[in-house]
Amino acid sequence: MDHDDFRQWAHRAADWSADYLDSLGDLPVRAQVAPGAVFRQVPDDPPAAPEPMEAIFADLDRVVMPGITHWQHPRFFAYFPANASPPSIIAEQVTAAIAAQCMLWQTSPAATELETRMIDWLRRMIGLPDAFSGVIQDSASGATLAALLTARERALDFRGNRDGLAGGPIMRIYASAQVHSSVDKAVRIAGFGDANLVRIPVQGSLFSMDPAALEAAIVADQEAGRIPAAIVAALGGTSIGACDDIAAVAAVARRHGVFLHVDAAWAGSAMICPEFRHLMRGAEEVDSFVFNPHKWLFTNFDCSAHFIRDPKALTDTLGIRPPFLRTLGQEGFVDYNEWSIPLGRRFRALKLWFVIRAYGVERLRDMVRAHVAWAGELAERFGQTPDFEVVTPPILSLFTFRYAPADTSEEQRDRLNAALVERVNQDGRIYLTQTQHEGRFVIRFQAGATTTTREDVLTTLNVVRELADNLRAASPDEPVAIAAE
Question: Is residue 111 domain-resident?
Fold first, then answer.
């Protein structure tokens, strides 16, 4: 493809993208294909000769698009959002054209220095003090792993990387059951082992870790000769939006010298609104804090802001600088590959720069506030609707509910709700997901897509009621597995 052809097809791709975004509201939210439907349409062998772009674009529409779940749909209320606002899409196109490998300052100084500035913008936007510096990671999962590796090395006086973990002391990680499964995965990869992830009970309307129980667990481990290495606190847990009392947890962490990481992957974006910052009270005392602009700050995946109080501890853990990666004759620069697990790094800062400038902080705040208000209104309406109950109240824009006809048992309600959520998603007008809360199957709702309106949010109740009425006429009798998200 020469540059003239590239120009033609790049314009075609831009037109295709604009048409796609314009038509989203008319499409089913979740892909409506059966397993294997896309796979069978792709030939077994790759083409030996070039194929025309016209044919490739035609197959994009014919083969690929029927199997796409539309995360940018205004009625995507499942999981958490993965927004791709128009400014971020444009920035990603530019990023792809530049195709920089941003592992070192010298491999693209602008990428490094813009990343430093964007992290500082985000820090200021959410109200963290200037004692924190940071890095843009690929995801909160990667940031949590980096944090736990750093906690491990700090607990071992940085001997783990040098000597290995075999025969070493038992180290413990503390978290409630409300943290994301990425914490479990990081515990495994960092070598702690599943058995050393200590689950702390929760309390209160925000389902927060009980600080007294946390302290008791730490003291018991210390008396048994185990090393308390890290605490992971949740700010907006994936299941029901649980928020730990960060200030109370931080006080325990300080008393015992334990590393504290906060996973605010989703809810951290809402901290740009000062009225929500009570949820992060105490964050100025933590060691590590992560949130994903690629969830609720209208910046497409992947883009995770990881803030660190002691960057030297992080770089001493992750940094390796062989001779071929050294920048000679320069001072005062950062090589962000030493702050991340991968050596290779994308130019993620550019899309943040585009998004924050294109919207402005006040407009971003207005969008987050609207999602929170609309979700609260919907929850109130569900609570007033016969045969439905709100199980966990709104935390920001997330709440859970269930279909609970008065003449049904708890087991029947589990089966009804499992069937209901699948009917909703097969229907295609909205997309919801489920979780398990206190042993029961419940349905999650969260609002956060860039194009979502109040009307889109309130449509949820009408769709769910309609399909629940149809379902009750033929109530399922077979038991179903209670799936957790």
Answer: no
